[in-house]
Every structure is written in structure tokens, then in C-alpha cells.
Amino acid sequence: MTVDRHDAAACAWRAEAIRRIEADYNRSADTHLIRLDLPRYPGITLYLKDESSHPTGSLKHRLARSLFLYALCNGWIGRDTCIIEASSGSTAVSEAYFARMLGLRFIAVVPSSTAAPKLDAIRFQGGEIHTADDPRTVYDVAQRLANETGGHYLDQFTYAERATDWRGNNNIAESIFAQLAAEESPIPRWIVCGAGTGGTSATIGRFIRYQRHETRLCVADPVHSIFHRHYANPAEVALPEGCASRIEGIGRPRVEPSFVPAVIDRMIAVEDAASIGAMRALSKRLGRRVGGSTGTNLVAVSRLVEEMASCGETGSIVTILCDGGDRYGCTYYDDAWLEAGEVDWRPHEAAMDALFAG
Q1: What is the C-alpha separation between 215 and 265, in angstroms, rounded?
Q2: Nearest residue to 25 (alpha-carbon basis) of 68, 82, 89, 88
Q3: pLDDT tens-digit profile of 285-334?
């Protein structure tokens, strides 16, 4: 018996959808690699991979593009498919952008406590909001909505590590090494990133090994996240009830399917106050605001710089500038909000100022 699933109209729509996404990528120049010399540490150079310059303003633009292409090529998305995601932040903003590009309905399932500016950013890109009173149920609610609408749940926390081609094809790791090619230290000692889904760390870690680089991968993780605990003790898979991080976009209360600890060389746990202090210090250094997860990365970078200097090592370190800080004006950049939450960021800001001091 011969079974032919070819539908000419569906194939034509899919081809056009992929063309639109690829054309959008071609219109966007690669994100910048910002060099920061560290005068107190001669021979050690810091580079920031500035993902805030994507059209939707964050690293998650790469993930959203990959998830859409993965789902399209798997035949999971068609011309009338409703797209669903469990996300209250940058991923939902980026996915709404691509859904609108393809003329598809997009629904973000978010906790009911989600801040209004984040919801506004999703709506600005054409997305709809569906709230869940219990944040722990967002995954189940997203799947239920997909079933009810006949739609597709993109499920970033499952597919992030496999949707991106980690061997190359314009992924973030390939971009970093290409942009470093003419620098004094083209093969960095360390690349530092965070983990929300785990997709970025999986892509970078696999690429480093595939290319046989000596670079090591460090994942900076909020102290109130399960990832670094699971890395140290695989038996730990969920945080205690009521334990939560303030740093948006990274850290999770449960080990996500797309988190791949075996490709990570080291994890560093970072206090929320330290992340916010580092974020503020870097914002002064750059003359523009960055987000909290960038601060988390920077705290890990500072520790690695100190260790390299104490051992007499030189070379480069690359980390991710994950997103801009404009969405955090009423939180991380609001002194009253921080003081109400008893977040003492000032000593950490001063300590990070010293990293950049001449």
C-alpha cells in the first residue's frame, strides 16, 4: 500500500513561512561583540555578546526563530495553527513576533502575577494573554489550550536544546568564534551564559566540543534555582516550596528537559543582590541599561577573572548581554522596589565597579 501525505497547498505555505523567517534573519545583521578591556587585569579581555540588538530585544529571539523552524519542518505548524507557549517574558515576546509574521494566532500562558510591562510587550507583538493563578500549572494549561484549539504548544523547555543546530548554521556559538577570529585571543578561555531552558548552554557546550576548542563553558545560575543544585547532585530535581529567584529569564524551580548538564564545565551560583548590583555597574559602564540576567553572568565572569589573574593566566572571556534593561524600570532600576524587597545591591555594585576601574 502506498501512502502519500503530500499536500501541495500545505507545502507551499510551509515553504513561504520558512522563507519569511529566513529573510527576516538575513535583514538583521549579526549581534555585536562588545570588547571591554580590564585595566586592572592586563592580558585578560572581556567580550559581551550583545543579544539585546535583536528585533525583539533579547537572546530569546534566536530561540523563538529556532522553535518555529523546528516545528515547521516537523509539520507541526500549518497555515491555521494557533501557537501556544508557557512564558511570561522575552520568549513569548519573540514568539509573538514570529507568529504575527506568519499570520498565526499566538497565546502566551502566564502566571496571573506577571508584571504589566511584560504583558504589554507581548501584546505589542500581537500576542494574546491567558493567565494561570498557580504558576506551576502553566505547562499543563498551555498543553490544554493547544488541545482545545487544535494548535501547537511550542514548549520551549523541552525543545530548546534540540531546535538549534549546534554544529553551526548561524548559531550563537559559531557567531562568537567567528567574531573573535581577528582578536588577540581568538579562542576564549571561558564562555559564560545563564540557563533558563538550557538551550543556549547546550548549543555552546556542544559546539565547543564539536570544534575541539579548549574553551570551557561556565553557567551562571541564580542561587534560588534548581539547575546548579542538580548539577552538583543529580538527585535534586526541584526547589523547595516558596524558594524563588528574582532574576527573570534564567533559573528554574524544576529541572527542565532541555537542560543538559553534561556539556557544562562549571556552574556558579549567584545571589540576586549581586546580580542586580553587577547589572547596575555594567549599565553605567556601557551608558545604557541591561537586564538582570546579564548581571548574573557578570558576577561569574568577575570570579573567573580573579582566578585567572591569581594563576597568571591571560586570554579572553565571553559572556552574554541577554537583553536591555528598559523592561525593568519598575523593578531592578527602582530603588524603592529593591528596598521594599530588602535587596541590598549597593555593595555588589561597588565591587563590580572595581572590575572596570582603571
Answers
A1: 10
A2: 68
A3: 999 999 999 999 999 999 999 999 999 999 999 999 999 998 899 899 99
pLDDT of residue 18: 97
At residue 136, the pLDDT reads 83
Whether 218 contacts 268, CB under 8 Å: yes
What per-residue confidence (pLDDT) applies to 2?
58
Q: What are phi and psi of 354, to 5 degrees?
A: -65, -30
Domains in the chain with CATH codes: 28-57+166-356 (3.40.50.1100), 60-160 (3.40.50.1100)
CB atoms within 10 A of CB 212: 6
**Residues forming beta bridges with residue 58, ordered by sequence position:** 323
Provide the CA 230 distance to its chain's centre, in angstroms. 19
321: three-class secondary structure by DSSP: strand
pTM of the model: 0.95
Low-confidence residues of the chain: pLDDT under 50: none
Distance set, CA 273 to CA 112, 194, 245, 279 (Å): 25, 16, 10, 10
Distance between CA atoms of residues 347 and 133, nearest Å: 36
Strands 44-50 and 33-37: antiparallel
